[in-house]
TrEMBL record:
GO terms for molecular function: hydrolase activity. It comes from the Bacteria. It comes from Caulobacter flavus. Coiled coil: none annotated. PANTHER family: BETA-LACTAMASE FAMILY PROTEIN (AFU_ORTHOLOGUE AFUA_5G07500), BETA-LACTAMASE-RELATED. Residues 1-25 form the signal peptide. Gene3D superfamilies: DD-peptidase/beta-lactamase superfamily. Residues 46-431 form the Beta-lactamase-related domain. It holds the Pfam family Beta-lactamase. Keywords: Hydrolase, Signal. This is Serine hydrolase.
Amino acid sequence: MSFWRKSVGALAGFLGLTAAHPGMASALPRAKPEAVGFSSEKLKRVDETMQRLVDQGQIAGGVTLLARHGKVVSQTTYGKRALDQPDPMPADAIFRIRSETKPVTGVAMLILYDEGRWKLDDPITKFIPEFEGLRVANGVDASGRPILSPISRPPTMRELMTHTAGFAYGIADDPGSQADQAYYRAGVLQSDSLFSMVQKIAGLPMYAEPGKLWRYSVAADIQGLIIERLSGQSLPVFMQQRIFKPLKMKDTGFWVPADKTARLAAIYDADPVTGKLAPAVEGGWRDVTRPPPAPSGGGGLLSTAGDFARFAQMILNGGDLDGVRVLEPETVAMMRLNHLPPSFQVTTDGTSGVLKPGQQKPFPFALGMGYGLDVAVAVDPAASGAPVGPGTISWGGSAGTWFWIDPANDLFFVGMIQRLGGVGPGLDAETRKWVYQALEKPPAKLAQTRDTTKRSSLK
């Protein structure tokens, strides 16, 4: 029996406890925008942008939250939780944050790093021996079958946490990638346990040799099994005990219990013919009101804007919140450090490869973006065209959530809607633009800070 199956009852108890004591929730202090350097008038542009999307029928509703210097500047709701319900969107609405789960999984991994359980340059086979003998796809033979060759070495933990290990993802039946097609057809993301998932991956082709390129992948889900093996707990129980409970993230987890489903935001997609919102068919994504058989460290969490704000403030504080330390400051700094060489592409559309001299990175990320440990890093904001401070970390989820944490300007932003694919990369960029235009003081100097020389000293 897996740790997960043994721990469902225990976690249900935790959820019942927090639901019975709503006072456990601890909102961050609030401040007027001007008190922390913002213009109230200019910040209205964020609200106008979000309300316009509601009025145009592009989203049902949403929540945004902005904080600086440890204080919430604004938390605003828009539209409805569900189009077929009369009630407005509540501030504590629960959203599927999908790939925004990855940074949380990264923190879970780093808690174990602080305990000395693993090192960055450990081979992942130290913790997942099932991955001995991985092979990489090298074209097809005359009959169309993949030609597989043994990889030169096992991926490292650093590579696993930076999407450079060479794994595929299998989100779609991608004819352009033998590995992704194989993952998809094998149902890697629909496995009935994390162990079953790893067993499947072990018999499938790698997308690339370890350390050769950046490729968005199933890596964070693999990390989930490593967390279970190192901690002796299921991934949900470990996160509950070591992250959510200490940070008082009372509404964050891998499923929504019955007493909270009235706050679950409905998820939509745009009709391909009319463009109108329609209830989403979530495909392989499971019923979020029930415990998942294989909790996804890459995309399984649900949360609220208020809960994720507490997570973001912990990162911004260097690993602690309200006197509770989750990570060591040096470990948070390591998480936010770019671990990629300058030639690696980082994109959110699955594009991968290595830049040639003079070649520009493809949309949606430009030059200047790197990748830390389970999170994107703005190493050269001027080159990327983003009005953020150097060292800003960010990511988002495919159901329409996004965030960024800017240490240089001591601020963070959380945005949440529920529409598959969001409304394109423009919403993230537009809200970012309005936030920084509302800063009365100029943003932190947009200096080039790409420095990967520290990588060799981090073990």
